[in-house]
Amino acid sequence: AQKITQTQPGMFVQEKEAVTLDCTYDTSDQSYGLFWYKQPSSGEMIFLIYQGSYDEQNATEGRYSLNFQKARKSANLVISASQLGDSAMYFCAMREGNTGGFKTIFGAGTRLFVKA
Amino acid sequence: DAGITQSPRYKITETGRQVTLMCHQTWSHSYMFWYRQDLGHGLRLIYYSAAADITDKGEVPDGYVVSRSKTENFPLTLESATRSQTSVYFCASRTGTSNEQFFGPGTRLTVL
Q1: Which residues in chain A are closer than 8 Å to B101, comparing Cβ atoms?
Q2: Which of A109, B6, B77, B90 has the smallest number of Cβ neighbours within 10 A?
């Protein structure tokens, strides 16, 4: 069965430093997609980055990169040059089937605190 | 307004009452979803829909009913609300080929 695990309930990082948020997943499918979402204190869900299971290169979007290690079933989010506005809840998610699958499951989330 | 909207944004109700949460999107996205967010659980899928008149259960469907008579609307009904259904509810939509789901602003529901 699908499962997403985020083992870090909370993380602290100094402003301007890089931080890695951990995510491991479990699936028996060969085709799947991995996502990261940000939820600031205002409550909205913001899409950050996507990685397909067949993508050979790690996904990057600005200061966000996804460290995809398929054999280890991990999809860690790396935020470079942290900013105070990065303080938020971060969710890792997975959908089986690169585009056709319906269900996306989410991890429990990691709360990131950026210190000035 | 363009995008995906939810109403009401806040709702307080009593145990046993029927409650309907509304979701409306203006993009004509084929897929729509309902999630609930509870502390320690992230988001859990309640129901989803691949198109008008096509719906299916997610991880936690018990106590909920959905319908989708029009592509743009996907209401979620709690037939007889229970305290365990106190949560924040998110609606989301996406196209058939997109990787990104777009989320509504959420509805905070309290069942007393």
Answers
A1: 47, 104
A2: B77
Average pLDDT over residues A64-72: 96
The Cα B48–Cα B50 span in angstroms is 7
How far apart are the C-alpha atoms of B27 and A97, rounded to whole Å? 23
pLDDT at A109 over 80: yes
A72, pLDDT greater than 60: yes
- Residue A2 confidence (pLDDT) above 90: no
Interface test with B, best of A91, A104, A105 (most B CBs within 10 A): A104
Residue holding tokens 């469907």?
A: B61
pLDDT for res B1: 57
| A93-111 as b/e: b if 16+ CB within 10 A | bbbbebeeebbbbbbbbbe
Disruptive mutation site among B38, B90, B101, B102 for chain A (greatest number of A CBs within 10 Å): B101
Q: Give how far B87 is from chain A: nearest CA, Å.
A: 13
Q: Note whether A73 and A93 are within 8 A (CB).
A: no
